[in-house]
## 1
Amino acid sequence: MKNESGFTWKLGMFVVIGLALFVVTIYFVGKQQNLFGSTFQLQTKFKTVSGLEVGNNVRFSGINVGTVKDIELVNDTAVLVTLVIKKDVQRFIKSDAAASIGSDGLMGDKVLTLIPGTFSKPPVKDNDQIASRKAVEMEDVMSSVKTTVDNAGIISAQLAEFSYKMNNGNGALSKLVTDEQFSSSLKSTLTNLQTSSNEFAKFTTKMNDGKGALSKLVSDEKFGKTLDSTMANLQSGTKGLSENMEAAQHNFLLKGYFKKKKKAEAKKQAEIKKQAESKRKNTPPVIDSVKLTTKGE
Amino acid sequence: MVIYLKSIFNDAGNVTLFTARFFKEVLKPPFEIKEFIRQCYTIGYKSLPLVGITGFIMGLVLTLQSRPTLAEFGAESWLPGMVALSLIREIAPVITALICAGKISSGIGAELGSMKVTEQIDAMEVSAINPYKYLVVTRILATTLMVPLLVIFADGIGILGGYIGINIHSDVNLVRYFSQVLASLDFIDILPATIKTFFFGFFIGMIGCYKGFTAANGTESVGKAANSAVVAASLIIFIIDMLAVQITDLFM
Amino acid sequence: MIPEEINTVEQLTDKKENTVISIGNLHKSFGKNNDVLKGVELTVKKGENLVVLGKSGSGKSVLIKCLVRLVEADQGEIKVFDTDITTLDNNALNAVRLRIGFLFQNAALYDSMTVRQNLEFPLKRHSKELNPTEVEEAIIEALDSVGLADAIDKMPSELSGGMRKRIGLARTLILKPEIILYDEPTTGLDTITSREISELILAIQKKNKTTSIIITHDMACAKLTGDRLVILKEGLIVAEGTYEELEKSGDEWVRSFFN
């Protein structure tokens, strides 16, 4: 055939490239699985391997250095895991190195991480058994999260109870905020104070006009001047105080308190009404709902 | 109904005999090596451009189509691995086999069918040349060996297409891309997929040859042979693929 | 060998030696109610040109295909060179087939090969001892004998119908068969080409001393090439004789062929 050589080399090229592609892929994939090149083995025992599988990567200092070769159940509490590791990292893994199981991302494969040992210790030998660290299980993480959530529930329940007591209780603090009698007695106190100040005014007039030792003491010019400057000082003092008060009202920490004070006044009316309606209930509804949400956690 | 069933069983019996004859004759000398090489050339090399283009487009399109979904999970870095895996395990073998069914199976069906109709096969027979050996064995062998090679090419070119697909939206260099691809591959991904392509190739050749070789007399039957070869080969590719996946699953 | 010896042997076993093909009670049917051959009896003598006439569908082609077992006979005996080919295994059958040449209706040239490859295809497989120059010589010789030596590197699709027939004949001749079976050698050709082919058949028969069975319904061809004619009707041979004998046959139906 004349055109034979024409197509033979093309066919040859086709076949050779195809096979080369296949062989190269197989070689590289094999290289990753440590099936080619020199390796050594290590063993380690775990209580649980949390889903580790044969073929998972073994990492040392964050580098993939080998794979899990075999997972075998020794007895009901121990799993023997055999690792195949590249020969050239053997000298870095000391005899007190330990293995732990981690996870490659949230959804990723499990990986077995080797924790390097002490520098001074001799390196591991082939088929050595190394120690293992308990893996951080997702369940552990979840249970600690649960404790936190439970605590938050308790805190919020207590907070609710506290604010309820604040509104309805008989303590000094709550009386200050809520009791009407208390405020009216406060008012009468103020009235009394007014009366006494009136009395005091009369007394001072007498004092000014009178010629007694005391009055003299008071109306004496020199004395008066001294007293005057004292009063001026006092005035500026009170002015400062009122400024402080003003500032305190705008302060964010105490702002709430002042607001609450206003609100509590209004709320108290409603609360009393409500309480009359749901008197048979021992626990107020606010607390109830808080408890419900905590139970849900 | 009975006649219909009987004709189905008759066909099945004929196919079985035809296949059995292949295995009987493939090992018996004389070997038609020259014709085998010529068939490898027409089946393998000549199909490469078609398979290459489809492979490239498959890789590119698969990458572009998978990217939004993976991006939603923030897992775009899995794209090379995912594309390579789907190409090698499933898409490249099946699509390549289907294309070969369309190109090769029908080609063989039409070629042998017309040889049958114009008595060329009879002419070989009477000149004491075994037409089965010369025509059928060489072609089935060639498809069995060439289709896997074509699939490997489709894999390679498809993965390259994936590289270009990724670089449309982001920037990954070639070395990093291939290391990601290789990292996601395993023998269990490559070997079953490669083994099943030999079956694809065998059946593509076998069905084409059977339909052509058993074509009735008359020009119309040539077209029929080519057509039914494509239909039967495509169907059987899917059936083999399903079986292969099931069997692979057993060993996973 | 001494010529006298051959003569004596031929004389002694005259009838037996000279019969190359003998068909006895040959039956063939394709499915139910489709009997094509219903007990054909036929003998062909050495060096004879036998023409089989018959209408389309009378089973002429099936008859000669049975001779090389392209079609398996249902019943009956087919003796070629004194061996019953119906019971032979593949290897022995192929040995017999090599001694028989078959020219198909449309020449059946291999489309994918050049004329040269068409000719060397059977030769290379059966005469492995030949070196390339001998193969080349044999090809040229066969093409020369059909007068188409210059078509050697053409593809079959470039050839006309008559040329294809001739190349087909050359491919048959290259294995030097003792019997040549012609399946409608002149069908689809114009009168002049038909005549050329018929003359070629005759020339080859004279030159190679081959035995031939020629299936045709072309009376010109039959007249030119046939030493003896048989007529096939509904699976049976109904008339036999030379062209002139049959032309004057008393049977109206037989005579209708000659008009």
Note: Chain B touches chain C through 14 residues (CB under 8 Å).
## 2
Amino acid sequence: MIRKTLLSLILILTLFAPTAQAQEKFIIVQSTTSTQNSGLFDYILPKFTAKTGIEVRVVAVGTGQAIKNAKNGDGDVLLVHAKPAEEKFVAAGWGLKRYDVMYNDFIIVGPPNDPAGISGLKDVVAALKKIASSKSFFASRGDDSGTNKKENRLWKSANINAEKDSGKWYRELGSGMGATLNTGVGMRAYVMSDRATWAKFANKGDYKIMVEGDARLFNQYGVILVSNKKHPRVKSQLGQRFINWLIGSEGQSAIGDYKLKGKQLFTPNAK
Amino acid sequence: MQEFNTSFAIAADLIFSAKPELLEIVMLSLRVTLSAVAIACAIGFPLGGMLAVARFPGRGALILLFNTLMGLPPVVVGLLVYMMLSNAGPLGFLQLLYTPAAMIIAQAVLITPLIIALTCQVIGSLFLEYEEQFKALVVPPKTAAAALLWDARYGLMTTALAGFGRAVAEVGAVIIVGGNIAHVTRVMTTAIALETSKGELALALALGFVLLCLAMGVNACVLAVRAIGEKRAYV
């Protein structure tokens, strides 16, 4: 009985295995939700596939998880937005070289009644101080994503230990950007978001951008080829071709061409 | 909440326009979950039957174990399967991560305990009726289990449906091992999660209605088979 069961299991699995290997030319890119949710990938990836015949399969998770997955060898290319963590990834030998790809910026959104009175502030650190001192709700990603890492650094610059008040005015949601925005709007909390996700987000309610334009809200995206020294199965050649395209003139202009309601969401800046 | 009305309209539109993109997602959902149910039943029916009929030390503990595993959180199953199939894991060489096969494995792991526990329950109560006869005729447990499984085949369809329901509705496991890759591993539940995260609540809810219709279709098919079969068996 056991042998029969095992046989049927293998049979069922093999039925599906070939479909997985059928398109042999594909790479897996570990990336962030912001690049996927903003619609950028849907716009630029078909151009790359049309030119090279290489299919790009995107796994969109938070930057922290993307880096972890890449360390496990479960991706050929890493495209995320947390420069210090990316440099650590390369220095430890998990990735080959880090290239700048594009940037946009973070913003803080909030309800129009603006309980902390931060609307229009150019200084993001001052805004965070006001949120903390007025104990206004602030919804944090709390998921070790690129946005979350940035937010933590900003709290540090403001000399505020927000985590101490976690569960009071400071709410760590442990969710992706979209889920955090959904919840944040629901609980009338301030939320720090990347501009691309916010632009595409459809459940804004009456929320408005409160703080933008501070140089410290700069949001740089980088791309790294996962090293095949630790994981020999990484598709280095195909992955490098994707990176070359992305930081080359074609990829860069494709990124610059992507617009939502007439607005450019990412600015290419590969060197 | 005008989202509800919009959702119904979008759902109706989605179903009747039968967009190829949606069809692809629906078909993958069906393919993955039906395969997982087939695997889980192939393991769960015989195991559950034996567990109901055979008497051995540790049987009670085993039943308790499978009953407990019915409450396995999908995310935990997803993590376990991810760790096995990851390139850093013991089964990485199979290259199954981020493929439909990985999603099938995860869902099968998720619902096999449920199938075992429910089968054990169904066969167990049937066994009480026949225990004397089996004893008198000295029927070995294996044969008894097989006979009872056949006898209870229509009841066991409901067991399979319970497994189908749990598998088709879960998102935690398939999003980890499948990666929600467009055109490759995107199923109904991960598409719903994605649209929710984009704030497209009406569309997400509409996809939920579509998923419900899908489940209804599968349930209707099984119930029809059951009704026809029972009529043939008892008339």
Note: The first helix of chain A runs from residue 2 to 22.
